[in-house]
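Hi,

I'm pasting everything inline rather than attaching a file, because the server keeps stripping attachments. The sequence lines come first, and each chain or strand is labelled.
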Amino acid sequence: MTQLNDLTITEASEKLAAGDISAVELAQSCLDAMDANRALNAFITETPDLALARAAASDQRRAKGALAEVGAGALDGIPVAIKDLYCTDGVLTTAASHILDGFVPPYESTVTANLLEAGTVMLGKTNLDEFAMGSANVTSHYGPVKNPWTLDDGKDRVPGGSSGGSASAVAGNLALGAIGTDTGGSIRQPASFSGIVGMKPTYGRCSRWGIVAFASSLDQPGPMTKTVRDAAIMLAGMAGHDPRDSTSAPVAVPDFAAAMTGDVRGMKIGIPKEYVIDGMPGEIEALWHKGADMFRDAGAEIVDISLPHTKYALPAYYIIAPAEASSNLARYDGVRYGLRVDGDSLDEMYSKTRAEGFGEEVRRRIMIGTYVLSAGYYDAYYVKAQKVRSRIAEDFTTAFTEVDAILTPTAPSAAFAIGEKMDDPLAMYLNDVFTVPSSMAGLPGISVPAGLSDEGLPLGLQLITRPFDEETLFRAAGVLERQAGFEAKPTGFGGETADLRTNGVLS
Amino acid sequence: MSLDTETVRKIAVLARIKIPEPELAPLAGELNNILGWIEQLSEVDTDGVEPMTSVADMSLYQRPDEINDGDCRDKVLANAPNGKGAFYTVPKVIE
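And the predicted assembly:
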């Protein structure tokens, strides 16, 4: 029997509208699933009382016929999980870092405020890589997150990262949808690893105000959902101009779901030859070809394109992102919030606090960022990387004179076991090789689950479109989703009795 | 460009992160590994290319110069790990 927490946002919204279910029942179903699956470690903070209160308020609005105007009521009463990088008024916000111990924001981020205004019900704050730095959700101060997808080998898989808790919560049906943030792939890569949809909007589409900053020229909020349509509905409830973020774009928010016409006839889909990389498993390349065939079958035209600077995106990213991070994270000084480790002098207090408060990967990136910005190296590293970034953006601009969307794999592998790639930072960085280039260019991208690996783990394909052309992105993604017909579900985890199988659909 | 432990010590001071002496050399190795991989950027011809300073193709607007926030001192101070009254406290900086 299908439980309420197994529903998609679209299905739940219909049932709520029909009066078949209440928002309180829906929230309770998710809270029960969270309770039963706590071993996933998907949440850092659960907010059950808040969730039930907000769900009850939604039911009252519905009874009075006064549904939320934001999102046209489609999100009213929908239980969602919030990455613990968004500041939430009165609710502990950690960024999965020891250095933010006990930080309770006195304000709400714009995106979560918009979602609140749309009537969504926050279930809790999800786990992530510390300060969103990682691709496996293994750098969290609160421990690694498990992927609900497992194999018979008894090893737990990573859910990807950095939005790993959000991915795990949605894949495990603990929440109907979640929000993540994406700097170099932190929504799309975990979506691929966890068999869900993850969407990064155009830089500037959603406000970054109130999100713990990692790399300000790259960070962008986005939805993580079970279906493409759900992502479109959620994004409509998140996006919009915000005067408090000077990089937020003053553009109208279209009806993204309405753009999903199911018709891609005549659409030109580019296949960039540079995305064939050394060591990529044959099954990823095969799935990519299959994806192209799906579009061809649906009437789209497949065009071979070149994005010549692709291989330089990742090294340039590892100058720009750490540089911005070293600057953004300078605020954690033990004075105004979070952890403080006493020292005899002000400098000693700072350096002890930061040594104890930041984890290994965060310290490493701050060190790189500080170095590449330091006197004598700024031009050689930082300015050079910004020039390469211009080259990468030019590549896309040129490609988009020929095509409407670009199709690539989302990640170069399926989910790996927790503990792998831990002693080699570079091997970990390579997870984002296909997602970083479009991030560097600020473009919208989406990962859609498209198949299973030979071993039986989910694999995603990525679509990229022009800036602020999320409508074409959702239209193409909807068709990819339909053609791929991905219906496999996670098969439980870690030998737990909790049954994550839903609808009896198993491949 | 290769980092020696002396440079790593200097960066750690700039970044205000205390790194114990025995960890300096291994950290230098890790950072050199990453920086060595980044070196491939020198292959890219960037002559005459403007560094990207703005991701979105839009100009910044200006808001009216008016106070639009404030009056929340106690809320802000509530998160101080070691505040006193209406103040943040720090170790003594003046002898």
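Helices of chain B lie at 5-14, 21-38, 73-77.

If the labels don't parse on your end, tell me and I'll reformat.
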